[in-house]
Amino acid sequence: MATELKLSHTAAMILKAIESGHVYGFGVMEVTGLPSGTVYPAMRRLERDGLIRSRWEKQSIADAEQRPPRKYYTLTTPGRATLEASEKRYPLLANLIPIAVGGNA
Amino acid sequence: MSPVAFHIAILRAAALLVPEPRRTDWLAEWLSELWHIRRDSPGINVTAFCMGAFPDAFWLRRNESGFSSLSLLQLDVPPTPTGIESFPDQGTAALASPVRCLAWLAILGMLCLAIGLLLPAARPVLLSMLYPRDLVLLSPLNEGDVIADANGFFDPRPSISWEQFQWLKAHDDGEFSDLRYYETTGLSAGRQRHGAPALRWTEDLSVLPASVKTRLVRDDAAPNALPPGTKGFVLARLRHGNVRNSHYHFIRVSDRPFRTLGMVLPAFLFAGLLLRIMNAGSPECHLRRISARRSLFLAAKTLLMALIVAVGSLDLTSFGHSVSPLFLHVLAFGSLFAVRWIVADQRNRCPVCLRLLAHPVRIGGSSRILLEWHGTEFMCDRGHGMLYVPEWPAIWSARQRWMELGASWGGLFLG
Fold this sequence. Notes:
The complex is a heterodimer of chains A (105) and B (415). With 105 residues, chain A is mainly α. Chain A has six helices and two strands; from the N terminus they run αααβαβαα.
């Protein structure tokens, strides 16, 4: 069912950004150029629809770097399938989003 | 307040909108992001980033308050052959209970008041409501400079010299008491409306409109040092209801809020009349049943909405140090929307428990209106009854209809 979901260009950009290794909210904002008031609600919606999932970073890692832990987002399997469908619909998507350092794409 | 504290305050304010179960996690994520942004991206507009928390919080409130399991995929399901389709409530959970509804309105009213008290133009109007009715501003009748301007806003000007004040004082026939002279010490440039500066008392009263600085003259010898032509204001208390002495022109200080906030009552009456003429505010059958609880709820809701509209309009039209004449227009439109909302909200509440009706179900189809009823059914969560709202008026279902469910239905519902 999820593969049939048609994403808006904004949602597809966010999905692509996460897939490219920009795995937290502000990273997605920076790479897409979208404001926080757009990115975060869109990520809530993607998470609600099962296309991405979030997890908190381990406290020990954050403590070691003396900073608060961050919430990271990753694509789910339906999310990858939806992104593939979206990339066919928006062929320039891959060119818009650079791969993050250490990204998984 | 430091920038960090300000940004954290924005996020905490937005967090109040997030449903309780997710609030802690939501706030932790935003605070963490804020911390990282401040460390890693010094050039970014952090305030704009924090303001984005409000749409996020609104989204969560709208979508995760009782219908979180519904996704877009489910909404794509075509209507069933019976023509019955259910759809989610949109952000009404916060206002479902009558107590919560009044609490939210009270919070909104307090917020409007707090904002008004921070605005230089709105603050004097709000605070001057506290003045006693016998407090008046005087001017010589022949000059008549203490006037209300063409828009009804109280807008006095410094008009009395010290010599005139002494003369007025000597000729007072006991109409006034506690006569005080306020000497004008300065005018703030660029803060005048219609060429008439407003007042700010520096002693005793500190809440009248700003842009003219004044000083209370206590010592009779002090004015001798003033340059010739200096003018000021005379404040006094009225001994009697009417003034017989023709030497004075006076205006009650408390008239100022009356001329602005006092307009909300006629605005509401006008809006109610207009909606009644348009038939949008006509009472439905279940609204005609009078009960003390419903009447009290309606009265409280109307009062709070009147406060929100009046003070909100004042806040929106306070530019710099003056209230724009647009105030009246905003007040009129605000009243129209407020009365419309009050009627619609009352109509969508169970007449027994006053909770918002829920579980809307659309029945029938517009193409089959001749064959069957077409509209939406709402149900009371507590099982008190159902409300039928026709989508298109027909001969047999032109208006909303309330059907009470008997006690035998009680086992199917909560509470």
